[in-house]
Design goal:
This protein is of the alpha/beta class and 229 residues long. It is 49% helix and 14% strand. It is globular and about 60 Å long. The chain starts with a helix and ends with a strand.
Length: 229
């Protein structure tokens, strides 16, 4: 779902003539077509590095997968998870994946593994955007691409179905009705999950864009590190 979490920034970059690329470390096979479809909506090229769920490690081989992507794509900016968030999120693999990503980014700009990755010169990354961070310093106005972000989220059917079941188990009936009026009448887990995500996304992005004395209808939140370009 992270490709949509920062999907507004990715779509905006693509619409402005840039190239937006997403590399997915972990994904179930049945989710890949949905992620590709969401990426198409946003104007994003996507690939999968196919790390094994539950077995992500910080090995040389794992870091070389990240390095290969960075040196092939040669981005000016990388958007990735907030390291602070990853270390208290109890989703599997978050911590090891985060270390692997950061080590891979660091080593991609150095003369590391040149013999294993022939023809791929080092490529340093001057700027990293950490998405939805605990200590933000930047917002990106995504008002003009809000419809694309919503459309992309809607095609992540497996995630919406999971979320529908999760929220129904986690929240009381009254809370669900307050959050999404008519929740109990929605026909399936997909519709329930999508309705809750719409409510959450609307609240979060309006808050970041407008409620904190901003001037944007909808905004994505980032912590920018490095030298902005």
């Amino acid at each position: 779902m992270e490709v949509v979490e920062c999907g507004g920034a990715l779509a905006k970059n693509a619409q402005n003539g840039g190239e937006s690329f997403a590399s997915i470390m972990l994904s179930k096979e049945n989710s890949k077509p949905q992620i590709r479809k969401a990426a198409d909506v946003l104007g994003v090229t996507v690939n999968f590095t196919d790390f094994e769920m539950g077995n992500v490690d910080v090995s040389s081989e794992a870091k070389e997968k990240i390095i290969k992507v960075v040196r092939e794509v040669r981005p000016d900016i990388i958007i990735t998870q907030d390291p602070e968030h990853s270390f208290h999120d109890l989703d599997p693999d978050r911590r090891q994946a985060m270390i692997t990503i950061l080590e891979g980014i660091a080593l991609a700009g150095r003369p590391y593994a040149l013999d294993k990755l022939p023809g791929l010169d080092p490529h340093p990354i001057p700027t990293i955007y950490y998405m939805t961070p605990h200590q933000p310093n930047t917002v990106v106005d995504v008002s003009d691409v809000w419809n694309l972000k919503n459309e992309a989220m809607s095609v992540l059917e497996s995630q919406m179905e999971f979320s529908g079941q999760h929220f129904e188990e986690a929240l009381s009936d009254s809370n669900l009705e307050n959050l999404v009026p008519g929740f109990s009448k929605l026909p399936n887990n997909y519709e329930k999950g999508r309705a809750v995500h719409k409510a959450l996304d609307h609240a979060v992005h309006v808050y970041h864009g407008l409620a904190t004395h901003g001037h944007y209808a909808f905004a994505e939140l980032f912590a920018v590190k490095g030298i902005s370009i």
